[in-house]
User: What shape does this take?
Amino acid sequence: MNPFQEMKNVPPMKAVAWRGEVSLWNVDTALSRLYDKAMESKLMFRQPAVGIRHGGVRVPEPFHADYEILFPLTADPSGAMPGTDVKELPGLEVASFVHRGPYHWISCTYEKVLDWLRENRYEVAGEPREIFFVAPEPHSGGTQDDMLTEIQVPVRKAA
Assistant: This one.
């Protein structure tokens, strides 16, 4: 199945962010920690959470990735939150792809993303963003098979 969905423009956003080294198996832990910090600080934010995979578009390294977790803010923070930053992300034109299923299988989707970019003669124009639309809901019987992640790749036509 081709994961490509559409070309679209995403608007700029202000977000609270944490950046560090994570594996494919602990992205959810990093999301939970940032969520807890945001709640403790009474930040006004909205879902879904966003991830930025630093280092370009490639098949993700499973054990050590430079990764950033963000929650879009609906209001400016009233004070500092240790270990986090407030970032302004620019608006971008992106190619949108969808990954369904466990996050640790996202490498398979990235292989298809890379194929699509080559076949359609697009160049990467920035860091890919991952939007976590559906996360596992353990209290409602959900599993990682229920996960839905959008991969947004900033692009421009190759010369």
Q: What stands out?
A: The longest strand covers residues 13-22. The beta strands are 4-10, 13-22, 49-53, 65-72, 85-89, 92-100, 122-124, 129-134, 148-157. Residues 19 and 68 are 4 Å apart (CA to CA). The radius of gyration is 16 Å.
